[in-house]
Known about the structure:
There is one protein chain. This protein is mainly α. Helices cover 75% and strands 0% of the residues. The longest helix has 56 residues, at 213-268. It starts with 13 loop residues before the first helix and ends with a helix. 19% of the residues are buried.
Amino acid sequence: MAKDAAPLKIAPTGAIALDEWLKKFTWGRTVELKGDFKIPKYKFYSDIIELVLDCARRFGGIYEENLLRIREGLEADHQFEVKCKDLVRGTWWQICIMFLITWAFIICSLSILQMPVPYSKLILLILWQIFGMILLPWIIFKIRKFYFSDVGILWKSLFMLKALVSVPISRSEVFLHAELFKLKNIKNKRLASLIEHIFDCCQRALRQGGSYEEEVNKIMKDLRFEENRIYGLFEKKLMVLKLAILSIFFLPTYLAFIYIILSDFISLM
């Protein structure tokens, strides 16, 4: 291996990759978007950027402020995702530690007692715990979708409204791009007042004209506050899930092993 070989660099992904792309973006290269100048994909932010740049090509103008707004939202979203991932990672670490502790106890007990326990019983015990660990990410995915999927729909509409506020297209076309019709399908009662506020300000903009940006900014602040409250519920639900996994898949394993040891010990007496 060459001594001067450059260290391997891992390409950024997700929100980081998109933020890096926005930092390097220059308006003189918008024409290259049709070729290999691809926007990194991350949630709905990539679609909004594509739409803003497409409007720049069609109608002219430089919407740098729009991209700055998107970057601000992207940074807040990234921080929130990091917080959620840290919470899930912490849950995983605790489950894995309990797994190691359980089997360290079983192995040490077998070594000390020198009792012949059938391997088939031990395999059943470890398979039961592995099944619980396989089930855990699927349940976490379902819980996260339940709490945050509606919030994501709402964020997309708000960011689209904000990004297109100064674009010279009709308000009805802006609202179509913002997919306001999807907001009617949101069933989370905590978001009902925010959705009603969005429809009110959009209808006012259609009837009276003018900018809706100030109202959208207020709704976004309210949604960020509500998102943090929902995160608190998500955190509590993960705690309940962790206790359930430990109670169903780990405690019974420990008790089953004790039962096996005692039953074999009594049979030898």
